[in-house]
Structures are given as structure tokens and as C-alpha cells.
Design goal:
234 residues; alpha/beta; Rossmann fold; six-stranded mixed sheet; three-stranded antiparallel sheet; 9 helices
Length: 234
């Protein structure tokens, strides 16, 4: 069964339809990149996958026992987030909060999970450092570790390399690819077409009210690819 299944969804932003009658499936282990023009509905779709926004019509169904609270999410960074007054360890373990219910304190298991993810992403030595003092690349690693504390199945990433220099960007992509290969399904919004073509198993392209969904090769053979890469449509 698909991890995510959208069935003829129509989405709107500020009372304007941005996506109409779109259907696609994301299966366990997939790496889906969502690409497209500004204003094409990428962020609106992400909010809908997070159940923060309801489709105008159609349905989004989660399978394989996945619950909304078990989705790991890395949002686009804002100025307020970059100045968050907490240390690295506190930020990472806060990713466990959705699974805690009304319990006020972290368990030993949750702290061990945070430690595991900090070590996995190479930030264990930063655990007592103030988050606001870190570089942009280090902050993104922290937020990725936090997202991993929330899930074992699905990561939703919204422009995870925005504002990072090329070397740090390559490191982030390599980490995300490794997480995907370990069995975590990845859905990533990106403007980086070259990265999408390098890492994605599937691509969802949004443009001018139209949409395309398919494998990486199917995307390369499509008019959508020609449009986004600067070529002329056939």
C-alpha cells in the first residue's frame, strides 16, 4: 500500500486554485522531489501533506500505518528560527514531542534517539552549543536531526539547502540521500533541478496550473523537463 496517496486533489491559495485534479502515490522508500515555478503550489501542497491545509476537493490518504504525528518535517528557515534560544541537544530532542502525548518530560529512550540522530548527522559534539551561534549548514543539520526524531518512515523537506554555500549544500544532499537509502521515504520541495535529477526516484512538477508526476526518466522525457530546464516544449 502507498505511504501517501492523493486522489484528484484540488488546492487553493488565497482563494485562487493553484493545483487541480492531481493524483499521485508515494511508496515506501521513494525519494520524491517537488519542483516548479514560484507560485505553482509547492508550499500549498506541502501544507496539505502535513494536514495543515485541507484540499478544496479530493483526498489525501496515508497508508502503512503512518500517522500525522509520525511525519518528520524540516521547514524553510525564518529569521526567528535562526535565532532560537536553545542549545542543540534541546532542539533535536524536541522532535520527539509529538509522540509524548501529555507527558511533560523526555524519556531515556527519547534522549537516546536524539543522541543517535545527532551522531548520525555529525553534530554530537555541538550538543551543548547555542543553536543561534551555529552556521547555516550546522543549523540545518540540527533541524534535520530533529525531524528524524519524529519519524522512522517519512521526511518532508521544504527547500532544505536554501541559502547554503555549494559545499554545505552537497553535504546536505548526501546526508538526505543516505537517510533515504536507510529506508526513510523523502518528499522534498526544491528549486534545484540538477539535484532532483541526481537524487530523486520520482519527480512531481508543477507549472502554470498543470502538473506532471513520474519517475526521473519519465520526467526527462517530458515537456515539463524541457520547460524547467530552459528548453522549448515540443
Amino acid at each position: 500500500m502507498a505511504l501517501i496517496k492523493t486522489d484528484n486533489i484540488t488546492l487553493s491559495y488565497e482563494n485562487m486554485t493553484v493545483i487541480e485534479n492531481m493524483s499521485f502515490e508515494v511508496n515506501s522508500g521513494d525519494y520524491l522531489c517537488i519542483v516548479g515555478e514560484n507560485g505553482s503550489g509547492k508550499s500549498t501542497l506541502m501544507k496539505s501533506l502535513l494536514s495543515l491545509k485541507r484540499p478544496v476537493s479530493g483526498s489525501i490518504v496515508f497508508g502503512d500505518g503512518l500517522k500525522h504525528k509520525e511525519i518528520g518535517y524540516l521547514p524553510q528557515q525564518t529569521g526567528a528560527q535562526k535565532d532560537f534560544p536553545a542549545n542543540v541537544g534541546e532542539v533535536v530532542v524536541s522532535g520527539c514531542q509529538n509522540s509524548m502525548g501529555l507527558r511533560p518530560f523526555y524519556s531515556a529512550k527519547e534522549r537516546a534517539l536524539a543522541m543517535e540522530n545527532m551522531m548520525k548527522l555529525g553534530i554530537w559534539e555541538l550538543r551543548k552549543r547555542s543553536y543561534r551561534e551555529l552556521s547555516g549548514g550546522q543549523q540545518q543539520r540540527v533541524l534535520l536531526a530533529r525531524a528524524l526524531c519524529a519519524t522512522k518512515k517519512l521526511l518532508l523537506l521544504d527547500e532544505p539547502v536554501s541559502g547554503l554555500d555549494p559545499m554545505v549544500t552537497a553535504e546536505m544532499y548526501s546526508m538526505i540521500s543516505g537517510i533515504n537509502k536507510s529506508g526513510v521515504t523523502v518528499v522534498m520541495v526544491t528549486h534545484d533541478i540538477s539535484a532532483a535529477l541526481q537524487y530523486a526516484s520520482h519527480i512531481l512538477c508543477l507549472r502554470s496550473g498543470e502538473w506532471f508526476f513520474g519517475t526521473r526518466q519519465e520526467f526527462l522525457d517530458s515537456d515539463a523537463s524541457a520547460f524547467l530546464r530552459g528548453g522549448e516544449q515540443s
